[in-house]
Amino acid sequence: MLLRSLIDRSRLTILGLNSGTSADGLDLAVVTIPRDSREPVTFVHGTQRAYPKAIRELILRSADSKFTSHEEVVRLDSILGQFYGTTAAACLKSLAKKRIQVDAIASHGQTVRHLPKAVRLAGYSAHGTLQIGSPALIAAITGRVTVGDVRQADVALGNEGAPITVAAVARLFGDQKEPRLIVNVGGMANYFYLPAGMQSDNVRAADCGPGNVLSDLLCQKLYGRQYDRDGHHARKGKCSRRLISLVTGMSFFRSDTVSTGREQFGTDLANRLIREGKRLKLSKDDLLASAVEITAYGICRNAAGLALKDRKIRKLYLTGGGAYNSFLKERIAAGLSSIEVGTVAELGMDPSLTEACSYAVMGAACLWSQAMPTRFGSGKQRKLPILGAIVQPPV
Length: 395
Ligand SMILES: Nc1ncnc2c1ncn2[C@@H]1O[C@H](COP(=O)(O)OP(=O)(O)O)[C@@H](O)[C@H]1O
Ligand SMILES: [Mg+2]
Prior knowledge:
The protein contains 11 helices and 13 strands. It is of the alpha/beta class. It folds into 2 domains: 3-161 and 352-391, Nucleotidyltransferase, domain 5; 169-351, 2-Layer Sandwich (Nucleotidyltransferase, domain 5). A hairpin with a 2-residue loop joins β5 (110-121) and β6. It is globular, with a radius of gyration of 20 Å. The N and C termini lie close together (9 Å). It binds adenosine-5'-diphosphate and magnesium ion (MG). Residues 20-22, 24, 186-187, 212, 216, 227-230, 320-322, 324-325, 355 line the site of adenosine-5'-diphosphate.
């Protein structure tokens, strides 16, 4: 199916592919998006596929090391393109048996560098973000038009390339009567504030700081397990004020950047926390308790600030893998007096698939040449980006 057969459709069924900074795997969500934005998006199908260990190790080497070679990145771009392509193709095949036809694919790719702060280099101001997992390979393997590189049009406008899913999240969760505060806890944590009635001037979105990443890295290093299920270990520990202030004193919490990544909150920091923990004679569980408290701190300071501006905010809806961590949920609730903490499941969405759904919505917007605003309030844009680069399958 080529691009020309899609652009005039009044609705598109898109497979959104998400692979976040946790590097845990690929989330797949199929949704039908009506061109008329007043009509609701409908969820068709969703599934997840964990990365095989060997791929995961390559991703972590590329994303977490300052010494990754170009060869490694080029090869991983190919490996991930094939993994996404074959995983998507299997999904399309099982849907075809149920007579569900998917029109196109939208893939975020795996972030290997996120450098939101500009530096002067060779007389130019340079900043950017890089996602790999070749969209051309996905298109070739699946035979579907594929939208990739969803962050680059935002970077080209001088922005950080994050957050970019605001308009899609607004389409999925915006409400006429109730303000919506959605907090995504993936590798990093980020919030979306959607005022009631969706007056776009008042929409806000930004990263809050680390999400699950520190807790995951500590759990892997200290217990050899991928993550601390339900905060089992963190719950038994005592958080250390010293460790918390070591992280909350970092530049992200004092700067006006709206996004962050594993460059700041990754392996180097986790190793530093472990060293510091040894010096302070903390237990492994104290380290995990501190990591959860750091995540809760970043979320609560943003939520509390928003609640002061909009007193109608009564609830914070968690999404992403962190929504399943009951201990994190408790610690966020403990830090917020006037706001209840729930999950997007209460709004009819599977928390592990929100981002994949957002990319599907963005993919449709790209194919229809619809702009997706990414900045609001004082940073409002004069020109709006059309997010995504379109790749066509071979004929
Ligand atoms: N039951 C659970 N208890 C605690 N943490 C969980 C649970 N389920 C998922 N997670 C966390 O969610 C993470 C994956 O979140 P995800 O939204 O996929 O992040 P990303 O978008 O960065 O890939 C896991 O690494 C883990 O930290
Ligand atoms: Mg994930």
